Structures are given as C-alpha cells and as structure tokens.
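Reopening this one. Same input as before:
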Amino acid sequence: MTSSLLWTLIAIQIAMGAFDTFYHHEMTERLAWRPSQSRELVLHGIRNFFYALLFLTLGWAEVHGNWALLIIAILLIEVMITLMDFVEEDMSRKLPASERVNHTLLALNYGGILVLILPVLIAWSERDSAIVPAFYGFWSILSALAAFGVAVFGVRDLIASRRVLRLVGNDTTGLIEGLPPEQTVLVTGATGFVGRRLVAALTAAGHRVIALVRDPAKADQLQPPIMLITALDQISDRIRIDAIINLAGEPISNGLWTTAKRRKIMASRIDMTNHLVDLIARLASKPAVMISGSAIGWYGIRDDQPLTEDADGRASFSHELCDAWEKAAARATALGVRVVTLRIGLVLGTEGGILTRMLTPFEFGLGGPFGSGKQWMSWIERDDLIRLIAHALSHPELSGTLNATAPVPLTNADFTSELARSLHRPAIFRVPASLLHGVAGAFADELLLGGQRVLPHRALQSGFVFRHTTLPSAFRTILGAR
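Same output, byte for byte:
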C-alpha cells in the first residue's frame, strides 16, 4: 500500500482524531467523568481497539485473501460504530460547535480513505490468504504510534465506562436546608462550575431563582424553572428578592495574568458587585442577605501557619483582588442588608475547577507534586460549598467573612499523593517550580506554587457540619474511588 495520498488522508485522520480526543473528550467535555456518557465511552473504547488493529495491520503488512476481507469488514464495522456514536451523542449531550465540525471532517476524510483503500483490499482478497510483512518508512512508524495511542485510550474509556456508574449523579437532595419556603434568590455567575449546581439545588428545594448569565447560549445548562436575565436593569424595582448570591467573575485560571487579563479579572468582580449594590438601593423591598464570593487568596502566599478569618492578608494580586471585591460587597450593609463574604478554597468536582486539569495526567500515571510540594492546598468539595452557602443564608447571626474550606487542608505533596492513590496510579513526575514560573509567571507563583493553610473556624463554630472533612472521603464521592 504505497499511495502517498492514502497515507496523507490516514495521517490527517490521526491528527483530527487526536484533537477530538484531547481537546473535546478530555479538556472541554471530560467524558470520562460524566455518568451520562457511560454508553458513549463503551463505543469509544470498542472503536479504538478496532482502530489500533487497523493501524498496525495496514502500517506493517499486506493482507491477502480472507485476511483482506476481514479488514474490509472491520472498516465497515467502524462506520456502524461511528453512526451509533453519533446517535448516542445526540441523545445524551449537546456537542459544542467545534466538535460537530470536527466530526463532520472526520467522516468526510474517512470516506476518502475508504474510496482509496477498498480497491486495494479487494485486489488483495483475490490472492491466496496470507499476511505479508511490509514496511512503509515514516508511515509505518506513525501507524504504530497511533495504534498505541488509541489502544491506551480504548482501555481507559472501557474502564471509565464502569467507573462513572459509581459517581454521584445530579441528585441535589439535602443540599439546601434551613431556608423558609419559596424564597426568591438572585444568582450571578449561574452558569459557572459552582453556580450551575447551586441553581439546581435551589430549584429542586422549591425556591425561585433569578439567574443572571453573561452568555445566553449557556442557559440550557441550567435546570428549570428559572427566571433568566442578561442584565440587572431587567429587574423591576418592585420585585421581591429575598437573597442574592454573587458568584460572577472572569475565570482566573484560564490564561496568563497579563496586564489586560488582571484588569478583566478585577473589573468583572468589582463592577458586578457594585451593580448589585445599586440594584439593592433601588429595590422597594431589600433582600435580607447577600452572599458574595471571595477567595482564600485574600490571605496572600503563606507558609505553614493556620489561618482563620481573623488572620491578616499579605500583599499579592490575589489579595488585592479579593480585598477590593469584599469591600465592594460590604457597601450593601449601609442599605440594611446582611453581607457574608465567602473566602472560597479550591472547589473540588469533576465538572470544573483545578481537579479537572489534574485528572487526565494523573489517570495516565503522569502526575506528581508542583515544585517542592510543601505549599498548602485548602479545598472544599462542591456540594459542601453549596450546603455552606445555604447555611450562611439561613443563619442570620453570620455576617462578614467566612472561610469556605474543609477542616483538613493538605500540602500539595499529600494532595497529589491522595489523588494518585484514589486513581490507583503513581505520583512520581514532579513538575519543577522553575518550569511553572517560567511558563506562567505570577499565575503559577500564587495559584500553583503558593498556598494557604486555611481553617473554617466560623463555619464550625456556627454549627455547620461538613460531609467531607478529609480528602479521601471527598474523592470516594467525586471520583467513584473504591
């Protein structure tokens, strides 16, 4: 099989398939951690094994007689599995536009491959049955690498298809307790990692939610019934709002902290919070409480000292950001509104946050500590954060700052070790601090190499009970760890 055009199309198919796997399946859709995608993962796993067989066979041999007919059958089975995969995807999830385009190009390119390869295989089928070794130079090496890659992901997808059945689904029972019935709650940042779960929990508990979203296209992520708005001026002065939960803000970990990015991060939080205070000022009936986001970055980069809400802050961009954000929210107290600012730690879940960036390398045994591993990671499981928000809403004696972290923080070395143990993998590939700093600068210094040992003193003192006080407990729920 010496056609350069055919091998070029196969190389294009490999490249597009790799892009689809890494960008869509791993980075954006995170299929291996979605309980709804168990059947899709099975189809991917089976198809990958067939692909591995095809790459090895076509790259390293000529198949004659019945062996050629077998390869033709496998090519046609691939088509059938792909059609089944398309149906399953349409039934179980909404594909992003880039994935749909990529799938279309993959299908067209695969059709071109079939047009070129079927006549060759048919000609080979007329010979006596035999597998004749062959070597096509670079193309053979590429096919071997591709076969190895798809086989690895095939095994992983089949294992993941069973694991996701052990993951906690969408049940929000018991997350929102203690509130009077039928409260009206305004939520900003409603389509974010925490906001989506919060809205679902509030509506499931029978409360009315007004969801402010910047991108209406993401509104289908929210579970009805909700009132959807894209700007605060769409809210009438006479509407009754019982509580406001302010989680809106430009993501801080999706790019380098350039000057423009820092301005955007700062402005998105301060401007939104100021607009909320302006809304409160014009409402005829004021909300009783506003829960406003902040972060443990307020404390700055610290060493081993335990930090409660009474600790001081240290100069850093994170401190500057959180301090300005908290002061903007505090303006609402002058309007008679109780304000609670949540200093939120690393929120753990498989649908967003830092854990999703760690899962893929750790699953393939490529994970390890960041830098020295001595920096502290103060974390909280996402549903515990939702429960803590409800606790703050329903306890009028709580105001001011509240650390939203689990009672037992860990160093980065211990955190990565526990993650690897939960996935039954090693954690030996330490990422050098110099590399992280060189690539990401201050972003790495503050978020990856720096840390804080934060304790939820006021939450515990007020009677809040965490479901997950330790990381192994959280990972059993989040990762389906046995």
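So the earlier flakiness isn't reproducible anymore. For the record, The chain has two domains: 4-166, 184-478.
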